[in-house]
Write a sequence for this structure.
């Protein structure tokens, strides 16, 4: 084994750089014509785990993205690792190319591929590291910790845990990736009981820019552990998440649909529900006001009560509200409920998200709805348009969980009081309408921020998993948190590989 390991090190650190240096000097590709130098290096190191345009694995990777904008990008090659060692090899190979070449090799990192904006987890003419082959799920001996590969989606996790009457604080949409959601903070149906998803990560296994595989937890690299709780893709390639589990059986939930005529009543009920006082920690609500070009306006309340209790008092204002178009309320398991959420947003459409946060205030929520309604009118004729405004409560019942669990990087505090997370999610059919739709959304949220500031209701937090490409959620964590993230970057990525060679995500040094 020692001889084999020595041979591999000789091949990778001596022979491969030598071949690449000759290639860079002569521009003669070693037996792999028409491929970029970085993909050549990766093919030499990883063989068939590197795929190229036209190859089945490459095509499947592109087709699996949530948004059409991401799927239309064309990387020079796709790396499909199946182990942490594969990831380390890929990162080292890219580092060799960067060291020998005058221009930096750009690469993207993808898990579930659900972030909608182009370039967030894919790349043109660079390398995409597609982690979906690393989707293993297992629990430890006492079933207190679940280990999840960074390429898994939440549906993988819940299918495994439901059978054991266990759960974890995780995503609410089954097709969303574990990696992106967790490194962006993450909201869960269980957040009022257990905090943000990232608060429940006890350990990250991560490949650093040097290619070294390390753990980050309360005792080992604790500053990196905190940085990864909201720090996005700025420190390395995470290969495994270890999260706390808890007992969880079936519970009550579903969606109730209403006509838009109930909007004012809905907003008042939402504001009362999300207040700081007396928040029921088993209750989770997502309230959406939506328009689509086929059916017009409507309202949907996604309601989850994480006990098998039908119609608890927290939700009576919504269940009693009339008229209702339809209801799917039932007792079921987490896999079923997150699958229902996933069905609302199928892959393959053009997508745009933008977000902001403000204090819970019923008159202001009504004003936001009115501005949203007005912003729709100029674009209502866009082909295939779905245009949805969503309110979600962030009460102190969520934000007060972080500190006892070691803290996170999100910059939120229970003293902020009852907050509302506001999201615009849109989809449409034609690239020709991209600017019309995104400009409408951008202008809408600029107005909301101006008005919330004027009303004394503004909060700087921009939820990273909902942020648009032009937003800066890292700065929204506040200067103290941002400074700690920058310090962690300098320590664990001193050459700035994940700042300059990974253009996707939200970078730490943007000023």
């Amino acid at each position: 084994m020692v001889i084999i390991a020595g041979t591999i090190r000789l091949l990778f650190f001596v022979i491969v750089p030598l071949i690449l240096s000759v290639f860079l000097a002569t521009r003669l590709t070693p037996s792999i014509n028409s491929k970029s130098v970085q993909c050549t290096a990766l093919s030499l190191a990883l063989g068939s785990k590197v795929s190229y345009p036209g190859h089945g694995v490459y095509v499947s990777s592109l087709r699996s993205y949530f948004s059409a904008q991401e799927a239309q990008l064309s990387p020079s090659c796709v790396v499909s690792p199946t182990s942490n060692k594969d990831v380390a090899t890929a990162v080292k190979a890219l580092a060799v190319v960067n060291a020998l070449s005058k221009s930096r090799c750009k690469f993207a990192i993808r898990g579930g591929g659900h972030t909608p904006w182009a370039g967030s987890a894919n790349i043109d003419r660079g390398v995409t590291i597609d982690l979906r082959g690393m989707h293993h799920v297992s629990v430890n001996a006492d079933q207190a910790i679940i280990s999840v590969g960074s390429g898994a989606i939440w549906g993988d996790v819940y299918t495994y845990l439901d059978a054991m009457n266990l759960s974890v604080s995780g995503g609410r949409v089954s097709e969303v990736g574990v990696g992106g959601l967790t490194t962006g903070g993450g909201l869960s149906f269980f957040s009022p009981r257990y905090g943000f998803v990232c608060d429940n990560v006890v350990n990250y296994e991560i490949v650093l820019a040097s290619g070294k595989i390390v753990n980050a937890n309360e005792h080992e690299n604790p500053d990196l552990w905190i940085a990864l709780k909201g720090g996005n893709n700025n420190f390395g390639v995470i290969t495994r998440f270890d999260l706390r589990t808890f007992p969880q059986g079936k519970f009550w939930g579903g969606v109730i649909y209403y006509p838009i005529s109930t909007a004012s009543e809905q907003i008042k009920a939402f504001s009362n529900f999300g207040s700081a006082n007396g928040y029921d920690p088993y209750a989770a609500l997502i309230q959406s006001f939506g328009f689509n070009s086929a059916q017009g306006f409507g309202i949907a309340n996604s309601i989850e009560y994480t006990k098998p209790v039908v119609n608890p008092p927290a939700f009576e204002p919504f269940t009693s509200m009339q008229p209702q178009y339809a209801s799917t309320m039932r007792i079921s398991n987490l896999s079923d409920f997150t699958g229902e959420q996933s069905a609302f947003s199928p892959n393959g459409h053009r997508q745009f998200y933008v977000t902001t946060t403000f204090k819970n205030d019923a008159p202001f929520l009504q004003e936001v709805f009115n501005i949203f309604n007005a912003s729709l009118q100029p674009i209502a004729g866009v082909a295939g348009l779905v245009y949805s405004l969503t309110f979600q409560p962030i009460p102190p019942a969520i934000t007060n969980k972080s500190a006892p669990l070691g803290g996170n990087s999100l910059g939120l505090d229970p003293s902020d009081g009852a907050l509302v997370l506001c999201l615009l999610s849109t989809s449409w059919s034609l690239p020709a309408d991209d600017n019309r739709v995104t400009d409408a959304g951008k202008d809408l949220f600029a107005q909301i921020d101006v008005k919330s500031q004027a009303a004394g209701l503004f909060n700087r937090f921009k939820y990273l998993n909902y942020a648009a490409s032009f937003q800066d959620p890292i700065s929204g964590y506040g200067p103290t948190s941002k400074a700690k993230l920058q310090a962690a970057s300098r320590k664990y990525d001193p050459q700035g590989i994940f700042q300059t060679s990974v253009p996707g995500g939200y970078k730490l040094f943007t000023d």
Summary: Confidence is low (pLDDT under 50) at residues 1-34. The radius of gyration is 23 Å.
